[in-house]
């Protein structure tokens, strides 16, 4: 369906967006920058979910919707499926992608990583790099949240990238965001 | 066979239960009758349904009939065979016999004869009359019965049972029942089998010309009837369904045209629930039935069974779809039917269905969703009939009274007109009615909406009735429409009519008068009123139902019925959770209430509707209904409600109303607001007045500062609106204290439509960051309130994506911090007693000191010379220089100095009365800093409202220019002394001494007696900062006694100073400005006369211990020796004892022994004595030891050793040694 | 012919409503669409009644009246697409294909970055596209 763009362009756009927000617009307030990026992701996810659910029957329950996100949606966006879906049956789902596409090209400086692992307090460049990566992750988080919300599952999505390029996205659907206009 | 129809019908209606025939062989019936009939209806039986599966049926009704009965006799065999269903299902043979032979010979053959007919299902009941006491008889009976059994029972079937008249066996009746049921079952199976074979045969030839539906019908219905009799209603129903199916398959076959039916009188009342409505014979038509009646008949039968099965819901379901489909069929045959027949039929059908279903419906047992479904269907039926009813009403001219609401319009304008072959014409004698209608039309003007809103009224007709009617009159040429239009334009039937007509196609105008000129009235196109009258007339012919007729007879009746139907629909829809349908109909009810003047009920319903629409944001519909609500509220004088309605109206999309309408809303609102309301209500205008912080970064304030906050307020009012006052609450966004702080602005604001910028001045706020809370204020006397954030905060244009309320802080109050710093430019070594500049460096820390006022308060011993101007200069003079006055210690800072660091110079004079003393160089006493120190208290008030202030006390030290020490450098034998005066500069400025005079004390005089000039002339003598200079004086002792003895010698120094105020001491300021003029510095010097003729010598003996320690006792010893006898002043010193006195500085020493006392000293020359005083040194360091004085001996007669004061060294206490210092 | 098509948001708020009657009686169509939401609610809340079309996006005929038919379509994101037609013999397949196209158009419209989710759709291109779809529906009926 529709037109396609080179993946490299996507990467470029995302990186550029992140850097623009986090270093140019809101360099002083990283939290605001994060919120903006997340918001953009939210809208994108909102629209993508609208598109990718077009030709399919409605979901009976939340789990189906989440499975859809893990399989088809993920495939559409990231060319692969989620590797592992965990849930605590109390409304928290953890989507794990062992080879998250948008992080494959990101590598922290091993030396720095080493010495941060050595030194318990990590004031070195490693966590600045980590910070950058987490900045990159706000966008996919927003996408997931937008998609789920649009499928009627308001939730809060965070990201955990303890070991790159694997990445976990815990989605907490317990807190109900009521959308009121 | 079809001609048996009548008979069939009658039989069917005559017999309604199973028949069991009684073959009473030996007249036992009367005796056993009631016993048997007590068993009826059959409690339970197991029968086979049409799929041959056993089914338990209960309370099977049956009837015992003697074979001798007329009803069973005299039937032609083929009849029996045709109407088999009514034949007995079982035969009970009653026999009794006491004698075996009699049985053998008579009874047995007879029985054989009876039961030989295989058609029958039979069994024998042997009745024994034998009394149990008479065992002979009983035995006999037993025997006979045994015989009977042997003869008539077969292996597979028991056909006998024994009944004892006196006390029958317990199990007899059960046995009987079982046998009976068995018989019935068998018969039923047999007959069903038979009928089905017949039917099959018939069905095969279905599409042959000889096919006759009636035969099929009779067979089919017989089966159905049998099942029904056998309480197998399910099966009966299925038979009927098949029958219906077959009918619609065959009856629809093209070929011979059948007429439809429904032309008889009373047909207009739907008979879909009344099977006996018409004789089948009446509706039969050669080989089939008329569709109109037959379909209703079938449905009626089905409905009957369904009710028996207790399924009113299914009746309703089938009924609804039946009505709809049937009404389609009616439409097809419409031109064969009376005028509006279809509508009338539908109405009656719906009402009938409603009536019966509700009567049969017993709630409770059903599951909730079934229940909802049922109510929904009820609602559907109601609304269907309602629509048709409205249509009829419209046709006869009540259209003007029907609310032109969206619902009605949707229902009616898509519902085509009835299509009679020709439109009913006007009956000749109806002019009166026509006039009446005319009047009605004229009187009923379309109700104009409140706020005189101009709306295109929604159509209630698919096309203009007038044209429709006239078009359908065969002979009317279309051309005449045009004149009709002119004739019609002024008959007041609503503007929409002709506008619609012309808009439909204007070509009517062009095609004028092509038709024949019309002379006689009946060819003239009918006017609307005539159409109405004609319609009404022919409708009355159609309608036979008196109730319906009545409700169409007059407007009141119509409205009553209309209300009833609408209510019914609404209530049922509400019960079925179709809230939208229900509420909308409530709106219709409200309209009717309104017409009747029951305003409060109308208002209630309207509120519901508005709530629904606004809740889901259907503004177009809301805009339609809300003005009505507003009108009700206005009439009810419900000001609060009316106000809120106005607000809601205003806050609808502006596209929905004309500007002038919206202006009217506003003016209403304003009028109420300014008029005095009985109960003023707070008004929520969140949707109408929204507000957000102006673009850009938040306003930042220092702690305690007031500020001015700019808020963008968006007004949705069409006109300017005056707000008497305006308050804005700020809420601390993530402050610990959740204090919302209202900011009031008393003055009235005028909001333009659209964007307004409002500035509010902010009282000082607590530190933290604040977001906009709510906007409150007053319109007229009315409090209004708005929480409405417009998401249009331009800065956060993408906030909506996260669906967050824009919590952009509009105000940041910084936590307290120093805003200014004031330090002293030079704080030390200014000239005492001279007018000196003190410089204050005022350094604003990026905070404006605009309008700041500095209070300078000089402490004791310091005086500010207010006669002089203050000088303020920038850090580099380029930034500015200004002289400002100072009054009462207040200085106003100039504006240019508000943001830059400035130095403020002000003149002070430190006063010190007591004259400076020079000291002997031997004892090293420097003048202590402390007594030159002066305090200045500063207070700076600044900030926009002088709300900020800064206080500081600074210390400035003043000092004399010189520190003077004297030293006796030499003493010549002739008694002239060389006195050296050393001057040490104490200021950071060059001092130049122009002249020095020494007024000597008594006992001294200048050597050069002529004048008292110093002996050398090297003035001016320049002393650079912190350097020394010395002056020598030669003086000699004088013996001149003066009567006023002068204690000290005074050294007068005339000096000048060349210093810079930025460094330190400088030339004093003078009134006339020029700085460097001579100053005089007086210093007192104490000179000691040298010892000339010593007669007593006092020697300070060295300490015994080599070193002194603090706190250690030490003996201080002096030796006094008389050198020679004093020749003068005998009285004083020629006595043989002397008075001594020990002087010690109390801060250094504690004297342990006697300080003062007499010691004897012989007057002989050379006599000596030693005085010892025990002391404790209190401080360590070099201190003057105690001194021994001899007060009675003149100074000049004592020679001391050492001559001058000297120092001893006291070591600090050893750490180990503990001591105490006595208080 | 199709009288009216509408898009209704997941809070039953109208997002788009276009009537093709030509007359200015759109209000009644608003009413029809609004009321049809009752049926959709019912279908969704107790799908027992529409067990055959369980969770299918196409809800089929919402209610038959004598004069017009209302068809419904419910997307996965709880957005309702509703179509009102006056021709009484409609082939199911046609309606399905119509809704498929309609849905596609809707998705494209909301994918516009300047569209605010949950607000009315005010894109001309969208309404044009819908117009053509409606026309084509008419054609497919005719031939």
TrEMBL record, chain A:
InterPro entries the record matches: NO_sig/Golgi_transp_ligand-bd (IPR024096), TRAPP_component (IPR007194), TRAPPC6/Trs33 (IPR037992)
GO CC entries: cis-Golgi network; trans-Golgi network; TRAPP complex
CDD domains, per database record: TRAPPC6A_Trs33 (cd14944)
Biological process (GO), any one: endoplasmic reticulum to Golgi vesicle-mediated transport
Domain of life according to the entry: Eukaryota
Family statement drawn from the similarity comment of this UniProt entry: Belongs to the TRAPP small subunits family. BET3 subfamily.
Name the record gives this protein: Trafficking protein particle complex subunit 6B-like protein
TrEMBL record, chain B:
Pfam family for this entry, one: TRAPPC10_1st
Keywords: Golgi apparatus, Transport
Keyword Transport: yes
Keyword Amino-acid biosynthesis among record annotations: no
All residue ranges annotated as the TRAPPC10/Trs130 C-terminal domain in the record: 1105-1188
BP-aspect Gene Ontology terms: early endosome to Golgi transport; intra-Golgi vesicle-mediated transport
Subcellular location: Golgi apparatus
Sections of the chain in a coiled coil: none
InterPro entries in the record: TPR-like_helical_dom_sf, TRAPPC10/Trs130, TRAPPC10/Trs130_C, TRAPPC10/Trs130_N
Primary location: Golgi
GO CC aspect terms: cytosol; TRAPPII protein complex
Residue ranges with Polar residues bias: 499-519
Domain TRAPPC10/Trs130 N-terminal stretches: 17-316
Annotated segments matching region Disordered: 486-520
PANTHER family for this protein: EPILEPSY HOLOPROSENCEPHALY CANDIDATE 1/TMEM1, TRAFFICKING PROTEIN PARTICLE COMPLEX SUBUNIT 10
Name by which UniProt lists this protein: Trafficking protein particle complex II-specific subunit 130
Source organism (scientific name): Carex littledalei
From TrEMBL, chain C:
Family classification: Belongs to the TRAPP small subunits family. Sedlin subfamily.
PANTHER family in UniProt: TRAFFICKING PROTEIN PARTICLE COMPLEX SUBUNIT 2 (PTHR12403)
Gene3D superfamilies: 3.30.450.70
Name of the protein in its database record: Trafficking protein particle complex subunit 2-like protein
GO biological process, one term: endoplasmic reticulum to Golgi vesicle-mediated transport
Pfam families the record matches: Sedlin_N (PF04628)
Gene Ontology cellular-component terms listed: cytoplasm
């Amino acid at each position: 369906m529709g037109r396609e763009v080179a993946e490299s362009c996507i990467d470029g756009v995302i990186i550029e967006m992140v850097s623009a927000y986090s270093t140019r617009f809101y360099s002083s307030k990283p939290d605001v920058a994060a919120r903006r990026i997340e918001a953009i992701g939210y809208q994108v996810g909102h629209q993508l979910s609208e598109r990718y659910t077009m030709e399919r029957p409605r979901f009976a329950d939340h789990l189906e919707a989440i499975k859809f996100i893990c399989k088809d949606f993920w495939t559409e966006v990231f060319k692969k499926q989620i590797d592992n879906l965990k849930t605590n049956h109390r409304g928290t789902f953890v989507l794990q992608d062992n080879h998250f596409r948008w992080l494959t090209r990101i590598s922290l400086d091993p030396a720095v990583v080493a010495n941060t692992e050595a030194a318990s307090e990590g004031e070195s460049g490693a966590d600045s790099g980590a910070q950058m990566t987490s900045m990159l992750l706000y966008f996919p988080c927003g996408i997931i949240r937008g998609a789920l919300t649009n499928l009627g599952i308001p939730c809060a999505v965070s990201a955990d990238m303890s070991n790159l390029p694997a990445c976990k996205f815990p989605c907490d659907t317990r807190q109900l965001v009521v959308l009121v206009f | 066979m079809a001609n048996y129809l009548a008979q069939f019908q009658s039989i069917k209606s005559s017999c309604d239960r199973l028949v069991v025939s009684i073959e009473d062989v030996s007249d036992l019936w009367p005796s056993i009758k009631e016993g048997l009939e007590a068993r009826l209806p059959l409690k339970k039986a197991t029968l086979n349904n049409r799929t041959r599966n056993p089914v338990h049926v209960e309370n099977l009704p049956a009837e015992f009939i003697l074979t001798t009965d007329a009803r069973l006799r005299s039937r032609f065999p083929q009849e029996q065979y045709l109407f088999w269903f009514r034949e007995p299902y079982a035969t009970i043979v009653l026999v009794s016999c006491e004698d075996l032979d009699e049985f053998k010979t008579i009874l047995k053959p007879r029985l054989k004869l009876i039961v030989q007919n295989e058609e029958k299902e039979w069994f024998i009941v042997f009745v024994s009359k034998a009394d149990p006491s008479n065992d002979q008889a009983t035995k006999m009976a037993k025997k006979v019965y045994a015989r009977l059994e042997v003869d008539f029972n077969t292996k597979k079937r028991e056909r006998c049972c024994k009944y004892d008249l006196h006390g029958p066996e317990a199990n007899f009746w059960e046995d009987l029942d079982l046998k009976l049921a068995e018989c019935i079952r068998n018969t039923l199976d047999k007959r069903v089998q038979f009928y089905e074979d017949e039917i099959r045969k018939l069905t095969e030839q279905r599409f042959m010309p000889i096919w006759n539906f009636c035969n099929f019908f009779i067979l089919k219905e017989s089966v159905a009837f049998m099942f029904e009799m056998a309480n197998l209603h399910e099966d009966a129903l299925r038979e009927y369904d098949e029958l219906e199916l077959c009918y619609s398959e065959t009856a629809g076959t093209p070929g011979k045209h059948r007429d439809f039916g429904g032309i008889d009188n009373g047909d207009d009342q739907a008979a879909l629930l009344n099977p006996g409505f018409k004789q089948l014979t009446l509706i039969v038509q050669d080989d089939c039935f008329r569709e109109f009646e037959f379909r209703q008949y079938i449905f009626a039968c089905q409905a009957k069974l369904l009710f028996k099965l207790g399924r009113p819901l299914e009746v309703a379901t089938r009924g609804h779809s039946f009505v709809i489909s049937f009404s389609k069929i009616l439409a097809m045959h419409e031109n064969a039917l009376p005028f509006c027949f279809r509508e009338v039929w539908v109405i009656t059908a719906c009402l009938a269905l409603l009536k019966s279903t509700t009567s049969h419906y017993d709630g409770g047992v059903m599951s909730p969703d079934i229940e909802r479904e049922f109510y929904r269907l009820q609602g559907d039926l109601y609304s269907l009939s309602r629509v048709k009813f409205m249509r009829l009403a419209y046709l006869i001219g009540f259209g003007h009274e029907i609310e032109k609401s969206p619902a009605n319009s949707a229902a009616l304008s898509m519902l085509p007109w009835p299509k009679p072959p020709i439109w009913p014409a006007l009956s000749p004698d109806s002019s009166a009615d026509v006039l009446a209608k005319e009047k009605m039309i004229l009187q009923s003007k379309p109700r104009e909406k409140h706020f005189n809103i101009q709306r295109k009224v929604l159509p209630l007709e698919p096309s203009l009735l007038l044209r429709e009617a006239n078009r359908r009159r065969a002979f009317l040429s279309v051309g005449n429409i045009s004149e009709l239009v002119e004739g019609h334009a002024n008959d007041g039937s609503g503007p929409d009519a002709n506008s619609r007509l012309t808009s439909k196609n204007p070509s009517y105008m062009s095609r004028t008068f092509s038709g024949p000129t019309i002379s006689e009235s009946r060819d003239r196109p009918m006017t609307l009123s005539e159409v109405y009258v004609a319609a009404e007339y022919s409708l009355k012919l159609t309608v036979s139902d008196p109730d319906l007729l009545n409700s169409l007879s007059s407007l009141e009746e119509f409205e009553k019925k209309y209300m009833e139907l609408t209510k019914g629909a609404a209530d049922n829809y509400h019960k079925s959770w179709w809230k939208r349908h229900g509420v909308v109909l409530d709106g219709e009810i409200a309209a009717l209430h309104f017409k009747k003047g029951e305003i409060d009920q109308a208002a209630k319903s309207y509120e519901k509707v508005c709530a629904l629409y606004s809740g889901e944001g259907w503004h177009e519909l809301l805009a339609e209904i809300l003005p009505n609500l507003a009108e009700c509220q206005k009439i009810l004088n419900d000001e609060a409600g009316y106000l809120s309605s106005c607000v809601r109206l205003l806050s609808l999309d502006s596209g929905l109303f004309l500007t002038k309408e919206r202006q009217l809303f506003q003016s209403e609102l304003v009028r109420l607001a300014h008029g005095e309301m009985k109960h003023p209500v707070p008004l929520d205008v969140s949707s109408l007045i929204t507000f957000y912080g102006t673009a850009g970064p938040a306003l930042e304030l220092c702690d305690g500062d007031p500020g001015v906050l700019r808020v963008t307020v968006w007004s949705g009012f069409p006109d300017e609106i005056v707000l008497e006052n305006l308050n804005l609450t700020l809420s601390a966004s993530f402050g610990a204290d959740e204090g919302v702080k209202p900011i009031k602005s008393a003055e009235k604001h005028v909001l333009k439509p659209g964007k307004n910028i409002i500035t509010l001045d902010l009282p000082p706020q607590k530190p933290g960051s604040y977001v906009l809370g709510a906007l409150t204020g007053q319109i007229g006397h009315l409090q209004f309130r708005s929480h409405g954030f417009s998401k249009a905060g331009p800065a956060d244009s993408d906030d909506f994506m996260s669906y967050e309320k824009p919590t952009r802080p509009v105000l940041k109050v910084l936590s307290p911090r120093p805003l200014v710093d004031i330090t002293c430019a030079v704080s030390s070594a200014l000239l005492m007693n001279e007018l000196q500049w003190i410089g204050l460096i005022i350094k604003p820390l990026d905070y404006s000191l605009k309008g700041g006022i500095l209070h300078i308060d000089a402490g004791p011993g310091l005086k500010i010379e207010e006669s002089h101007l203050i000088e303020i200069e920038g850090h580099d003079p380029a930034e500015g220089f200004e002289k400002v006055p100072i009054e009462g210690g207040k200085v106003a800072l100039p504006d240019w100095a508000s943001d830059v660091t400035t130095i403020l110079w002000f003149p002070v004079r430190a006063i010190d009365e007591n004259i400076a003393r020079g000291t002997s160089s031997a004892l090293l006493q420097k003048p202590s800093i402390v007594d030159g120190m002066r305090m200045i208290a500063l207070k700076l008030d600044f900030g926009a409202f002088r709300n900020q202030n800064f206080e500081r006390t600074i210390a400035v030290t003043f000092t004399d220019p010189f520190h003077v020490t004297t030293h006796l450098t030499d003493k010549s034998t002739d008694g002239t002394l060389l006195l050296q005066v050393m001057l040490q500069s104490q200021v950071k400025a060059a001092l130049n001494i122009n002249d020095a005079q020494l007024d000597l004390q008594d006992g001294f005089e200048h050597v050069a007696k002529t004048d008292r000039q110093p002996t050398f002339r090297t003035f001016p003598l320049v002393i650079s900062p912190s350097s020394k200079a010395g002056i020598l004086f030669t003086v000699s002792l004088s013996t001149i006694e003066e009567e006023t003895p002068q204690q000290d010698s005074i050294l007068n120094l005339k000096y000048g100073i060349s210093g810079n105020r930025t460094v330190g001491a400088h030339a004093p300021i003078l009134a006339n400005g020029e700085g460097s003029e001579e100053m005089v510095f007086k210093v007192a010097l104490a000179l000691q006369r040298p010892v000339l003729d010593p007669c007593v010598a006092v020697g300070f003996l060295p300490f015994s211990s080599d070193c002194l320690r603090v706190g250690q006792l030490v003996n201080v010893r002096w030796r006094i020796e008389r050198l020679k006898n004093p020749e003068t002043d005998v009285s004083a010193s020629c006595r043989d004892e002397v008075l001594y006195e020990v002087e010690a500085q109390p801060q250094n020493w504690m004297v342990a022994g006697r300080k003062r006392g007499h010691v004897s000293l012989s007057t002989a020359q050379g006599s000596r004595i030693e005085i010892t005083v025990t002391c404790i040194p209190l401080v360590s360091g070099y201190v003057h030891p105690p001194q021994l004085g001899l007060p009675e001996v003149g100074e000049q007669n004592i020679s001391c050793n050492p001559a001058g004061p000297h120092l001893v060294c006291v070591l600090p206490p050893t750490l180990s040694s503990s001591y105490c210092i006595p208080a | 012919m199709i009288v009216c098509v509408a898009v209704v948001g997941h809070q039953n708020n109208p997002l788009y409503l276009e009537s093709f009657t030509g007359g200015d009686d759109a209000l009644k169509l608003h009413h029809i669409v609004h009321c049809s939401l009752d049926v959709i609610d019912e279908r969704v809340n107790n799908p027992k009644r529409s067990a055959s079309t369980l969770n299918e996006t196409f809800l089929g005929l919402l209610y038959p009246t004598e004069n017009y038919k209302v068809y419904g379509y419910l997307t996965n994101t709880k957005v309702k697409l509703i179509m009102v037609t006056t021709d009484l013999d409609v082939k199911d397949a046609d309606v399905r294909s119509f809704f498929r196209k309609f849905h596609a158009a809707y998705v494209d419209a909301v994918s516009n970055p300047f569209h605010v989710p949950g607000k009315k759709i005010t894109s001309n291109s969208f309404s044009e596209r819908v117009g053509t779809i409606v026309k084509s529906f008419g054609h497919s009926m005719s031939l």
